[in-house]
Each structure stands twice: as structure tokens, then as C-alpha cells.
């Protein structure tokens, strides 16, 4: 928007970094929930039997990794000295950083889907005595949340992947990124 052009690079990195940190925290939190569900279904005892301690550790690790990942550009992984390496969508971010982050998020989302598929088969198996109607209802709810997240963010991830692989000014689509990010904004409303 119009405010962007008046920001210093430090202000821009802080603004965009905070957005990346919150997105990272969302993705890693979804992973933490999937891991916790898998552990609960499998009855595996990690860190003792204290579920709240395990969740606090997972959430804490999620935020720590998110802070590191979101802070990398302000710490130097940017394109300030190499303008030809800049992203079109996120102009001060290096294309390699954008590609790395989108790849990490995509791998994590695939891992989450794999965990929930595994959980689903455990819950549906005849050997799953622990799986009652509440477990199945929770699984359906989390699957819906995950599905909505992926559907809303897929256009943004797609445009960022395109942007990170296209030579500068060779692709017109990244200049229309606001349309792709509109779906991501819908995720916050849902």
C-alpha cells in the first residue's frame, strides 16, 4: 500500500517479518497439534505422562523456530546488496529465502496431512479401542481446520513459488499478488 514506500528497510523487515513469524507459528502449531494427536492415539509416552508439558514444549519450540525463520531477513538473508535476487512480491526478501520458507511450509503441511491420514487409519481400525466418537469428531474438526488453512494459503504459496523461480520482470503474475493473498486473508476470517 501507500505506507510501504515510506518505510525504512528496517521497518519493512519488521512488518513483513512479523507476518512471516505469525504464519510460521500457525503452520508449526498445526504440526504440534498433529504430533500431539498422533502421540495421544498411539499412547506413546514422551516426556513422561504430562500432556500439558509436552504441548507447552511443542508450542514453545514452534514459536522459537518461527522467530528464527521470520528474523532471518533482518539478520542478513535479504537482497539489499543484490537487487537482481529480490522477490517481486516481497521486494526486500531474497528469492532464495522466499523459496526456502515456502518449501519448509509445504513440507510441514504435507507431514501434517500424512500424520492425520495415519491417525485416521488408526482410529478406523478395529484395533483402535481408544478411538471413540469424540476422537473421530475431533479428527474431523482438525481436518476441516487444516483443509481450510491449506485451501486459503495455497494461492499465496503458489504465487510465492512462481515469484521465487521467475527471473525479474519476466512474469507478470507476481505483480497481481494481492489477489492471491486475498484468500490467505480469508483464513483469518474463518
Automatic annotation (TrEMBL):
Stretches that traverse the bilayer: 12-35, 56-76, 96-117, 138-162
Compartments (UniProt record): Cell membrane
Cystine connections: 79-86, 166-171
Keywords on record: Cell membrane, Disulfide bond, G-protein coupled receptor, Glycoprotein, Membrane, Receptor, Transducer, Transmembrane, Transmembrane helix
Domain G-protein coupled receptors family 1 profile: 21-190
InterPro entries (alphabetical): EDG5_rcpt (IPR004063), GPCR_Rhodpsn (IPR000276), GPCR_Rhodpsn_7TM (IPR017452), S1P_rcpt (IPR004061)
Superkingdom of source: Eukaryota
SUPFAM superfamilies xrefs: Family A G protein-coupled receptor-like
Membrane topology: Multi-pass membrane protein
GO molecular function list: sphingosine-1-phosphate receptor activity
Gene3D superfamilies the UniProt entry points to: Rhodopsin 7-helix transmembrane proteins
Cellular component terms per the entry's GO annotation: plasma membrane
Pfam families in the cross-refs: 7tm_1
Keyword Mitochondrion attributed: no
Protein's UniProt name: Putative G-protein coupled receptor
Species this protein is from: Rattus norvegicus (Rat)
Amino acid at each position: 500500500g501507500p505506507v510501504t514506500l515510506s518505510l525504512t528497510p528496517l521497518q519493512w523487515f519488521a512488518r513483513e517479518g512479523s507476518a512471516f513469524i505469525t504464519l510460521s507459528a500457525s503452520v508449526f502449531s498445526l504440526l504440534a497439534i498433529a504430533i500431539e494427536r498422533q502421540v495421544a492415539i498411539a499412547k506413546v509416552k514422551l516426556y513422561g505422562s504430562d500432556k500439558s508439558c509436552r504441548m507447552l514444549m511443542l508450542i514453545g519450540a514452534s514459536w522459537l523456530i518461527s522467530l528464527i525463520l521470520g528474523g532471518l531477513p533482518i539478520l542478513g538473508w535479504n537482497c539489499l546488496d543484490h537487487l537482481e535476487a529480490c522477490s517481486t512480491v516481497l521486494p526486500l526478501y531474497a528469492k532464495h529465502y522466499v523459496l526456502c520458507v515456502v518449501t519448509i511450509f509445504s513440507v510441514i503441511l504435507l507431514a501434517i496431512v500424512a500424520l492425520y491420514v495415519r491417525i485416521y487409519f488408526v482410529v478406523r481400525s478395529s484395533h483402535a479401542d481408544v478411538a471413540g466418537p469424540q476422537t473421530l469428531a475431533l479428527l474431523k474438526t482438525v481436518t476441516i481446520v487444516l483443509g481450510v488453512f491449506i485451501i486459503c494459503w495455497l494461492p499465496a504459496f503458489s504465487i510465492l513459488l512462481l515469484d521465487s523461480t521467475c527471473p525479474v520482470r519476466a512474469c507478470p503474475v507476481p505483480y497481481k499478488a494481492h489477489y492471491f493473498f486475498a484468500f490467505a486473508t480469508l483464513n483469518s476470517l474463518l
